[in-house]
Amino acid sequence: MIRSAFNRGWEVRPRSGPFAEFMGPPAPYVEVTLPHDAMLGRERNPGGTATLGFFPEGAYEYRKTFHVPEDYRDKRVAIEFEGVYRGAMVYINDEFAGQRPFGYSAFVVPVDNFLRYGEDNEVRVECRTHHDSRWYSGAGIYRDVHLAVGNMTRIPLDGVRVTTPDVDTDQAVVLVTTLVEHDGPTRTTVDVVTEIRDAAGAVAATDRSVVSVFPGEPATVRQRLYVKRPALWSVDTPTLYTATVALRDGSGDVDQDQAVFGIRTLRLDVDHGLRINGEPVKLRGACVHHDNGVIGAATIARAEERRVQLLKDAGFNAIRSAHNPLGKAMLDACDRLGMLVMDEAFDMWTQNKTDGDYGLDFPTWWERDLEAMVRKDANHPSVIMYSIGNEILELGNPSGAAWARRLAEKVRALDDTRYVTNGVNLMLPFLNDVVAMVNDGAPAGAQHANLNAMMAAMDDAVNTVSASEMVTTRTAEAFAVLDVAGMNYADSRYELDRELFPNRIIVGSETVAKRIDTNWRLVLDNSHVLGDFTWTGWDYLGEPGLGMVGYADQITPETSPAQFLLLTARAGDIDITGHRRPASYYREIVFGLRTAPYIAVQPPSGYGRETVSGPWAWTDTVSSWTWDHPAGSPVKVEVYSDADEVELLCNGEVVGKAPAGEAHRFRAEFDTTYRPGELTAVAYKDGVEQGRHRLATATGPLALVADVDRTTLRADDTDLAYVTLTLTDADGNVYRDRDRQVSVRVTGPAVLQGLGSANPLTREPFTADTHTTYEGRALAVIRPSGPGEITVTATTGDCDEARLTIHAK
């Protein structure tokens, strides 16, 4: 079947059923281009769901009119939805045609029986959210939609599967498996012609087979092709091939499909860990949610590509989807850019985590949703592991272990070329026991008196409980069904299990950023530990305030529940606009990828005050030497470095020297005073300067600067331009303490897809054309609607306007 884009010409409104319309007229439809997030434009309010970032839940309906030619009577027609959140119901000309409860599965709706040929037809999609997520889910048709048309004899969607069972330097065996369907009145015979081309477009291998297909009895065609001197896919050299499969009879091509794939090998053992193409690879991993910051849940291809590129630039080589299957656009980007993937199926199985979540549908739909995930992932070389779940509550009992076995074996039956894991939090199945352990020995009535102490105690308790005999015994079966034991916040088991379970291979499927130095040492020292996936690589909407740092003297019984302004988790190495935070540079140093030191400064306003934070928080630092405080104010400076010693200078004068490197957790700290000018850190190893980092105070007139990531775009709705808006001085130093409200105007064939900042505490929407900067920065996202010249103009009250031009071709 041939896919064609089906994203334009849609309308959306809050759902209005026929009975509701007796009470008054429905809201009008609004034109949209998919992918679209219907939740992002809703007004946040204290009555909204906190985990969703206080966005309201609701139901929505989309519709689109499309013409169906008369000659489609002799074809098969379907609509493919890559993702609808959530509880999708699909109607064609007001007749029910299909549904999908899970919000993250791609699904196909055959529509032949409902079409009016030679006429206009209407597709309508209803969806709803109802306290069904622990993070910002978004809502609506948030991933791509395709119209698929095929002949009576055809290759179904995702009907070409490519594997590389035998690979060496001289030759690779490429097995191309093609499913052929036929709905004609009698059997038919066609040639299956397959051609493999390399990245340069040169033909690398060809094959021709004959297949006879009977009506209603799909035939599987397996072709072994041989690619000489293959260019192998890896993180560093993500070389891709294309397999084109055509069905031909005496009249020519009957149908055609393509599969993009990579040639690579995977091996796994306790002595070498993970090997790709024979080379050991340690996973420098980032957990990521599915939202795209200021454009919400809309999965636009360029947004996914940019996210993967920035994560890779920050030192990551692997991502874990949290906690749902990734979309095709993200996987395509990972293939092209060289990013390994742990794709995760579910956040819950038979026990609910929220009142209306997927647990209600899991017993009925789990097999179909696993099939959808594997079908989507099968040809992507970036995917190396399937995770069957995250922090599943029932894993501590035999029924939970039995479910783990069912899911793992189902995945293996669908795809035995990757490994199966599960992100297991070893505390959650034993939560009552954990609470007792945390409170054990505390004075009566004082167990939870101090929020900071409680969070620290819980943080320690996770590792304590994880290493206990109780957990060892009660999780043995659940881990035994896996190829790789995924452990969330359980680094205490890494070396323990080397002795207790000598054949167990482990991955740190979820860890906290502040432990990356000790965790990474465990990864390096233990071959059976594959790597570490931090929570999180990229900040996300919802779970508001998870990684926030506050001050004890600001938290009172009156203010602590008032979290309505909280929007983001504030837990990522990279914020929602793509700006790297200090933790990201620290991690890069720990990974051994950066030799220059990095300066991070705690705000002078917080000096000497008790901080309140949870396990997922970094220190309250920014990389700036521009503060709205008088000279002489005390301040704490952190310098991250793998060198032996760091020297700190302010305006050329030595502030002090301090040891750094792994023995000191890659961190040197200095108590000093704020003096405007220049702050410099110099790192020394064996007495020789290894690198330096400089911060300068912003001075002089305030300027609004606009920079765009690319000045030439594709003239279609899959591309985006990211315009960074920064308040600086004449030398480019950022005024992080003089935030302004910035307005953005777009002229030409484009729309303002989103405008916002990384401020975790805000009421401002991302769908307006005005937004306030945060720490001197904001981000505008521009989406082209056709070819031509696009002008973006940004203004604020006391600066000259910033203007730039983008070309869509």
UniProtKB/TrEMBL annotation:
Domain DUF4982 per the UniProt entry, residue ranges: 632-689
Superkingdom per UniProt: Bacteria
Glycoside hydrolase family 2 immunoglobulin-like beta-sandwich domain location: 160-264
Domain Glycoside hydrolase family 2 catalytic: 273-435
One of the record's GO molecular function terms: hydrolase activity
Family, similarity comment: Belongs to the glycosyl hydrolase 2 family.
Designated name of the protein: Glycoside hydrolase family 2 TIM barrel-domain containing protein
